[in-house]
Amino acid sequence: MAASCGFAWLAGLRLPDAEARLALWLYASLPVAGSIYYWLGMDGLIHGLMILAVLRPKSMAWGLGAGLLLGMQHFESGLVGYSALAVAHFLATRLKAESPVDPRWLFGILAGLFLGRALLVVWFNYHDFEIGSGRTAWMLEHLEGMVLSVLKRPHLVLWGVFGGGWFMVAALCGAGAVRDRVALLVPLGGLLGLVFFVADTTRVMANVTFPLLLSSVLINERVLRRLRATWALPMARASLLIPLIFVVGGTASYSVIYHDFLWLQHALTGAPELPGRWWDWPWR
User: In sequence order, what are the beta bridge partners of 253?
Assistant: First the structure.
């Protein structure tokens, strides 16, 4: 709830009224607006920290602090997401377009991510926590299945990446100068390649695309002003009539928020009885 309200507050703070309303509609059309309620806890904190980071978009120290917290929460999502934003900044600079971010702030974010990761490893080692094989080993073990799930249902997987936000992406393809579009769409397209390497497509892609979409579109007054002249607003409104799906393993899944509440009830009262492997219980 704090992450959702934080974006609404940020849009009202940063943008004129017309652009702020458009930003809210576009945000609501993206899976990121719902993925924080898909699995309560971790994604809401990730998105909240990403929103917190842009409150002072020219401060390296602020970026360092936000990056440190994000690195401790989810280093990989932060690294991929802000690396895509760094590519957008690099392309904008080379093409003489307007960069969506201040390079000092971006450097602070990236440095903070590695610092947060290092502190977390030191903390785990100090307390003798056993760390598993990690995400890379898991990905390599299940890579064939993830690739096949995309090849079997590419339409479903790709729709799960942006949902109704695909209408916004289509509008961005025709709005503004070519150099501006290239600087945004090249890193955004590059992120789509990740669908072959993740199992829970919708929530992971919501995480890694959010930094780029947030800085380059959702709180970018210049881009929003251009989108106002397109059909992005009516299509964003219409897209809310389409049920939001969460793609997991190449199949459409419902939100597991119901299971979150059952788990909370079990933790407080001991009932109902839950399976031993509670972490993948909703998908079995």
Answer: 246
User: Which residues of the chain carry a pLDDT beneath 50?
Assistant: none
> Is residue 190 classed exposed, middle or buried when 0-12, 13-18 and 19+ CB atoms within 10 A define those classes?
middle
Of 254, 249, 35, 253, the C-alpha closest to 150 is 249
Token pair of 209 as six digits? 């695309």
Q: Whole-angstrom Cα distance, residue 139 to residue 97?
A: 37
pLDDT at 258: 73
Q: Which pLDDT tens digit goes with each residue over 215-265?
A: 999 999 999 999 988 888 888 888 888 878 888 888 887 777 777 778 788
Both tokens of 273, joined, read 């009885």
For residues 146 and 199, the answer to whether their CB atoms sit within 8 Å is yes
Task: Please report, for residues 152, 220, 258, the alpha-carbon distance to residue 73 in angstroms, rounded to integers and kept in the order given.
Answer: 33, 26, 24
